[in-house]
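Ticket #4471: structure export looks truncated?
Reporter: QA, pipeline team
Priority: medium

Steps to reproduce: submit the single chain below to the structure queue and open the exported record.
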Amino acid sequence: MNDLSSIQDRDAYTRMIRARTGLVLRHPFFASLALRLRMREDPTCQTAWTDGRVLAYNPRYVSVLSPEKLEGLTAHLVMHPACGHHRRRQGRDPRTWNRACDYVINWILLDAGLTLPDGHLFLERYRGANAESVYGILCDEKGEEDSQAAAEDSAQSEEEGQESDEEQDSDAGAGANNEGETDEDEETASDPGLAGEVRDDPGEKSPGDSDSAETDWEQAMIQAALNARDAGRLPLGLERLVEDLIAPRLSWRELLQRFVRSSARSDYSWLRPNRRYLHQNLYLPSLNNHELGDVVVAVDTSGSIEAEDLQRFAAEIGTILDQCPATVHLLYCDMQIVRSAVFQRHDPPIILKPAGGGGTDFRPVFDHVARSGLNPDCLIYLTDLDCDLFPEFAPVYPVLWLLTGTADAVAPPFGDFVRLHPSPATAYEVP
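Actual output as written to the record:
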C-alpha cells in the first residue's frame, strides 16, 4: 500500500510539473507567476491551495484531472496571490471569500483559453468586479435566503400551531449540530469552486522558505504582464488591470520616454562590425538602436490646454529628442490644422504656444500626415480627449494620447493613453 501511494505521489508531482511546463509554452503570463511558488503535496486538503508561497495539492485529486484542467488549476491558483487575495480576507468567512475570489478571476482564465476543473464558479455579472464587492453581494444573498427560510418556517409553525417545547429543543439541538457541520465544512472543504483555494498569507517566514517566498506579488504580476504583452501573449482580460497597476507607479515622463524609445527604428549597419564575431574572422553588421526618423507632435488647441501643460510637455519632448535625435513635425489643431512647424535636433528649444481655440476634431492631423507622405516613427497627441471625432481606421504607426486635465475621458479607439499629471490619489481595483 505504501509503494502504491508512493507511485501515486510521484505521478501527481510529474503531472503538476508538466502542467507548469504546458503553461510556459501556451500561457507565459501564468507560467512566470507559477514558477514563484514552491510545490508540495498535501493529502489533507480537498483539491489544492496557495498562500502566496506554496502551491500545495492533493495527489489523489490531481491524478483524476486532465492535463488541460491541471493547467487551468495551476493558473487559477497563481491568480489568487497575484491579485492579493491571500492578504485581503481580513476576517471574512473563508468559504464565502473563496467563492468571491473565484468569481472575479475565473472569467479572466476562461477568456484566456484555459480549461478549469469541473464545478468551477463563473457568473457573467461578476466580470470586472473585485473580490470585496462580490463578497458583499454573496453575503447579502445568503442573508436573504436565510431570512426567507426563517419566514417560511415561522408561517408554517403558526399555521400548524402544534409544535411542543420538546420539539423546539430538538430543533435547536439539530440547528447546533448543523452549525458544527458548517464550521467543519469550512475548515476541511473551503474550495467550493474545486479549482484550488486561497489561504491567508502566513505572515512570518517559515523554516525552509527561501527569500523568493517573500515575493511582492503585485510587482511580479506587473513584470509578468509586461513581458507577456511585449511577446503579444497577454490575455485581454488583464490588459486594463495591468494599465491600472502601472499608471500610479510610473510618471507620465517615464511612460513618454518608454513610448518614444520603443518607437525608435533599429537597423543593421556595416559601418560598425559586430565585435562578437570578429574573433572568428566573420565581418557581420551590428544593430543600431534608438534611431528616430520623423516624429509628429500634435497639440489640441481647442482652448482647454493650459500654457503650463504645454511648456512641461515641450521641455520633456526636447529632453527625449536630445537622447534620440529626430525630426519633429509640430501640428496645432482644433477643427483643422491652424499652425505647423518643423524642428531638428540642434534647433532652439521647442516652445509651444496656444493657437486656434475652436472645437476639436482629431481627424485633420492624421489626414495631414497621410497627405504629406510622412511615415513617422510615432505620433504624440496632447489633448483633453473631449471629442469623439477619430479617424475611421487606426494608422500603421504607433500613437500616444497624452491627456491633460483631471476630467474623466473615454479611452481612444487606438493607441496608448497616458495622463499628463495623474491625481496623487489615483486608485485602481484589483480583482
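Status: closed, not a bug. The export was complete when the record was re-opened. Leaving a note from the reviewer for reference: The chain has twelve helices and twelve strands.
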